[in-house]
Design goal:
It is a single chain. With 193 residues, the protein is an alpha+beta fold. The chain has a single domain, classed as NADH Oxidase (3-Layer(aba) Sandwich), CATH 3.40.109. It is built from 8 helices and 6 strands, in the order H-H-E-H-H-E-E-E-H-E-H-E-H-H. A 4-stranded antiparallel beta sheet has the order 1-2-6-5, with helices on both faces. Strand 3 and strand 4 form a beta hairpin. Helix 2 crosses helix 5. The chain is globular, with a radius of gyration of 18 Å. The structure holds flavin mononucleotide. Flavin mononucleotide (FMN) binds next to strand 5.
Length: 193
């Protein structure tokens, strides 16, 4: 199913987004490693627009974050070990300036941080699943994000569980998916169709 067209490190095809997770607590240190990897992502002007608000399962912080997810995501993310909300600062202070100016790359850079997270989680024996399916008002209220921060997504992190533990309608989707051919998404010199 996941055969790369060209030689790449195995982590890129081994990472995928399962929904079945084992509902176990995870060590605080492991989650901090995952966030640490995200911290080292590149960003425009090294502005580091990302912010992470996390909650471990079975802690008081879990419920407000979990309750912001849509019902479909709640149906499986209830078994995650941790939830991490990713927000990004829509403005930055350019080098040599003092006032804030719009940062056109805030989401692009938060996406790079998310990719670092997912790959570090894989390396630590965990899986990640990003979710855009949340109620933005509830999430902002839950994590206390200031208005100038965009809410990017919530990431469920856990140890992968058996497919059979999922609600029936999600079991059929519990497999690594594919990608468009490289020839369809990359062009030498000039865009073509
Ligand atoms: C920003 C973003 C938002 C996503 N939102 C959801 C979501 O709300 N619910 C869900 O089940 N999957 C969600 N996904 C998972 C994608 O469907 C998945 O990453 C994509 O199909 C590629 O599969 P893979 O991650 O297994 O390689 C989201 C992924 C990303 C990157």
């Amino acid at each position: 199913m996941r055969n790369p067209e060209h030689a790449i490190h195995a982590m890129f095809t081994q990472r995928w987004s399962p929904r079945s997770m084992l509902a176990e607590p995870m060590p605080a240190e492991t989650l901090l490693s995952i966030l640490e990897a995200a911290r080292w992502a590149p960003s425009a002007y090294n502005a580091q627009p990302w912010r992470f608000v996390y909650a471990h399962r079975d802690t008081p912080e879990w419920a407000p974050l979990f309750n912001a997810l849509n019902p479909m995501n709640q149906s499986w993310a209830r078994h995650a070990s941790a939830l991490v909300a990713i927000a990004s600062d829509e403005a930055m202070v350019l080098p040599g300036k003092t006032e804030r100016t719009p940062n056109r790359w805030h989401s692009f850079d938060a996406g790079a941080a998310w990719a670092h997270m997912a790959l570090q989680a894989l390396h630590s024996g965990y899986v990640c699943h990003a979710m855009a399916g949340f109620d933005p008002d509830k999430l902002r209220q839950a994590i206390g994000a200031p208005a100038e921060f965009a809410l990017e997504c919530v990431v469920a992190i856990g140890k992968q569980g058996p497919k059979e533990a999922l609600p029936a309608e999600l079991q059929a989707r519990e497999a690594p998916n594919g990608r468009h051919p490289l020839s369809q998404i990359s062009y030498q010199g000039r865009w073509h169709t």
